[in-house]
Write a structure and sequence with these properties.
The protein is an alpha/beta fold. Helices cover 42% and strands 14% of the residues. The strands form three sheets. A four-stranded mixed β-sheet has the order 3-4-7-6, with no helix packed on it.
């Protein structure tokens, strides 16, 4: 993303922040030939962001998201923008959408509840497993980084994760776990050693 911003979108300066030293060193080597691109080794929670006009934010840890939301509100200037993939940070409402990408522009807007956010973004109050599969497929196709022989596996894994998140937050259309989800949970557990069943809430307060 740092290289794309620098070369294709002609950013005055494209900066990536990586907390892992080994990964940061490898990334620096890959973009060393691009004059307006830089990889900083540091923690996004403490690195300066006030001069950013477009910030690519790809975190799922709610502790980091909550911390950074406060910084976005206070430190980002003017009409600064935030770009995320697959989902918005917390209850933010996007100014533009081109799935799986969401763009947010300051002054930021927020939904009052997860259900309201979901309905405003998807134009419906819930998502079923068929739509979860379709969303995962679009995500894979748009990013085009998954080799053909692995697409089926990634589609299964991603669609199940999307549906589980919807179930746990009360935005799944089904009132019980659908047969395809049970089947794919079994496949992932038996053939790949991936057990996602513990992620499914059995006492969701949204239900």
């Amino acid at each position: 993303m740092v290289a794309i911003a620098a070369r294709e979108f002609k950013a005055r300066k494209s900066v990536g922040i990586e907390i892992r030293k080994k990964v940061a060193i490898q990334a620096r080597k890959k973009i060393s030939y691009i004059a307006n691109a830089e990889i900083r080794m540091g923690d996004i929670r403490t690195e300066p962001i006030s001069d950013a006009t477009l910030l690519f934010f790809w975190f799922t840890d709610q502790r980091i998201i909550k911390h950074m939301l406060k910084r976005f509100m206070i430190e980002l200037k003017g009409q600064a923008r935030i770009l995320t993939i697959l989902s918005p940070p917390d209850l933010m409402l996007p100014s533009k959408m081109d799935f799986p990408f969401f763009l947010f522009q300051k002054p930021f807007k927020f939904a009052t509840s997860l259900q309201q956010q979901f309905e405003l973004i998807n134009h419906k109050p819930c998502i079923d497993f068929v739509e979860s599969w379709s969303m995962a497929e679009r995500y894979i196709n748009e990013l085009d980084v998954v080799p053909g022989q692995h697409r089926r596996f990634v589609n299964i894994l991603q669609s199940v994760m999307i549906w589980i998140n919807a179930w746990n937050t009360g935005t799944a259309c089904e009132n019980e776990i659908p047969a395809p989800v049970n089947s794919y949970l079994g496949i992932l557990r038996t053939f790949f050693g991936i057990d996602l069943s513990d992620l499914i809430s059995t006492t969701s307060r949204f239900k």
